[in-house]
Amino acid sequence: MAYFEFERIPHIGAWWFRLGGATAMMDVWKETLRCPTCLKTGIANLCQAEEDELATIQFVPDGFRVVTTRYGPNFQCTDCDVAVKP
């Protein structure tokens, strides 16, 4: 089992984490999701380590789902089946 140590860097929304003695930087942010059809809203949590090309989604609110594309993850409304607006 891996042990992570996280340390927040104030005011810039980044996290440092340590795994097995190695230290790396991770960006953490929130995306506001809004369906253009039914106007449902929610907030998704994402993160990205500096060595990763694509973001990792940590949390998706109820009523939304993640669709994987070759350019990265996109969000859709589960009721309307349409892409959400940022």
Q: Specify Rg, calculated over alpha carbons.
A: 15 Å
How much strand content do the residues show? over 45%
Tell me the overall shape. elongated
**Count of helical stretches:** 0
Structural class: mainly beta
Unreliable stretches (pLDDT < 50, length at least 5) are 1-12, 14-20
Distance between the termini: 36 Å
Q: Taking strands numbered 1, 2, ... along the chain, how are they ordered across the largest sheet?
A: 1-2-3-4-5
What is the β-strand count?
A: 7
Largest sheet: 5 strands, antiparallel
| Mean pLDDT over the full residue set | 77
Write the H/E string, N to C: EEEEEEE
Helix content: under 10%
Whole-number tally of structural domains: 1
Characterize the structure shown.
The chain has strands at 4-9, 14-19, 22-34, 41-49, 56-59, 64-69, 72-77. The chain is mostly beta strands and 86 residues long. The chain has one domain (4-77). Strands 1-2-3-4-5 form a five-stranded antiparallel sheet, with no helix packed on it. Strands 6-7 form a two-stranded antiparallel sheet. Mean pLDDT is 77; it is low at 1-12 and 14-20.
